[in-house]
């Protein structure tokens, strides 16, 4: 392989993408398989994961995808998912913590219950699954080629954007901070920990706003770069963070939001 191919190849690597059947998880899984990785995708709906895996495999990419059920919303679910991964592979190089929930209500109507459920999946489940899979990640890690943990945060965890999703925004702020903590703690195990902070992408979670072209164009026009995110925007960033090219990056919160996180008041004066 040439130098550039070597920098971005994931041949021989195994990855787990939680919430990998749809949206950003599917975009990431496609990108990782395109770079040659064996990709495991898991979500609460096994059939959807199996369908997604089959559809990605039909693209004829260098890597492969396999899907199965996995729920990070409970302690037992995390344990079962970690056990399933261990049963399928003796090595894990990449963990993408993508599974997440959101909840939206106006400020005066936002319920107490919307906090516990969102935090349990987006923060507690992310932490516990990473904890359980650390031995498998450590097993493959080297000084020159560390294992990778990539958490999915959000521009809503960086910029003070609530828009009725208070627990979601707070959970993603927690993901960003936890990413930095784990990057510090796992560095000695030769495991990098980074987060991506997406802006608007087409997914089930944002279907209320991105399901049709007119809405996508309207929302995209509000971003500094004038469009919503595309699958290649996620795929390219994931490959970079997972491959040799990203081996010296840890503790970073990388925005992939078209510039929303740096947007300031326009025409103030």
Overview of the structural elements:
The chain has 269 residues and is an alpha/beta fold. It has one domain: Rossmann fold (3-Layer(aba) Sandwich), CATH 3.40.50.720. 44% of the residues lie in helices and 14% in strands. Helix 2 packs across helix 9, helix 4 runs parallel beside helix 5 (113-140) and helix 5 (113-140) runs parallel beside helix 6 (166-186). The longest helix has 28 residues, at 113-140. It starts with a helix and ends in a 13-residue tail after the last strand. The model has no long low-confidence stretch (mean pLDDT 94).
Strands side by side in the biggest sheet: 3-2-1-4-5-6-7
Number of strands: 7
Q: Structural class of the helix and strand makeup? A: alpha/beta
Q: What does the average pLDDT come to?
A: 94
Unreliable spans: none
Radius of gyration: 18 Å
Q: What name goes with the CATH superfamily? A: NAD(P)-binding Rossmann-like Domain
State the domain count: 1
Q: What is the approximate shape? A: globular
Q: Tell me which CATH architecture applies here.
A: 3-Layer(aba) Sandwich
Terminal residue distance: 55 Å
Q: State the helicity in percent bands.
A: 40-55%
Stated plainly, the CATH topology is called Rossmann fold
CATH class: Alpha Beta
Share of β-strand residues:
5-15%
Give the topology string: H per helix, E per strand: HEHEHEHEHEHEHHHE
Instruction: Sketch the major β-sheet.
Output: 7 strands, parallel
Please, how many helices?
9
